[in-house]
Design goal:
about 80 residues; two-stranded antiparallel sheet; rod-shaped; alpha+beta
């Protein structure tokens, strides 16, 4: 997959899901659409992962100076959800 934007990949995935849900395609076409859907799904996940890595948070220290730090997703951590 060349340079595909997230919105384009998601829209393509939605079209494939609509086609598959109708259930009126021959088996070989269904399998082909399913495979294309998996590729688009993986592209969406990859683009989201890349975007998350780019997010940085502006932090103010005790001296009032600002700096940035990488975003850490604590939502998967059971102990604390604060950044």
């Amino acid at each position: 997959m060349a340079k595909v934007k997230f919105e384009e990949a998601l829209k393509g995935l939605e079209k494939i899901v609509d086609k598959l849900e109708r259930g009126d395609m021959p088996l070989d076409e269904t399998l082909s659409e399913y495979e294309n859907g998996i590729k688009l799904y993986k592209k969406c996940v990859s683009l989201l992962d890349e975007a998350e890595k780019k997010i940085q948070i502006l932090v103010k220290d005790e001296n009032g100076s600002f700096s940035t730090r990488d975003f850490i997703d604590n939502s998967t951590n059971d102990t604390n959800n604060a950044p």
